[in-house]
Amino acid sequence: MYQFLASLTLILHFLFILFVIFGGLLFFVKRWAVYFHIPALCYGAYVEFTQSICPLTNVENYFLLKAQSQMYSTTFIQHYLYPIIYPAHLTPEIQINLGVALVILNAIIYGFILIKKKKL
User: Fold this and answer.
1) Long-range contact set of residues 67-72: C-beta below 8 Å, sequence gap at least 24
2) Residue 19 buriedness (CB in 10 A; 0-12 / 13-18 / 19+)
3) Model pLDDT for residues 3-17, shown as the tens digit of each residue
């Protein structure tokens, strides 16, 4: 059961990361999505710039500890998502660069949003 919860948390973590990176695009589907995306974006940038640990990482580790598993098993989800969420050679410099890329990408997305709003 705990291994399943660890996998589920990993999937949620991955979806949250995708939302942080690309959630601004949801404006073009549902305008109210930006009210959820902007705080998530700010939190994601904070985590990258301060090299903080996301609470979802702690939740995953808790479930893995309870499952008496030190490393993720080789399930499909864990095999492919784990390296994306936790790259092997992540340095503070790379993490800062990821934070800058996150901010720039979303500045572009929100620039398009502002242009669209002006046209309305």
Assistant:
1) 67/1, 67/2, 67/3, 67/6, 69/2, 69/3, 69/6, 72/6, 72/10
2) middle
3) 889 889 888 988 999
Domain limits, the chain: 2-119
Question: pTM of this prediction?
Answer: 0.78
Residue 39's nearest CA partner among 63, 16, 60, 61 is 16
Write the Ramachandran bin of 51: left for phi over 0, alpha for psi from -120 to 50, otherwise beta. Answer: left
pLDDT digits (tens, 9 = 90+) for 80-89: 666 777 777 8
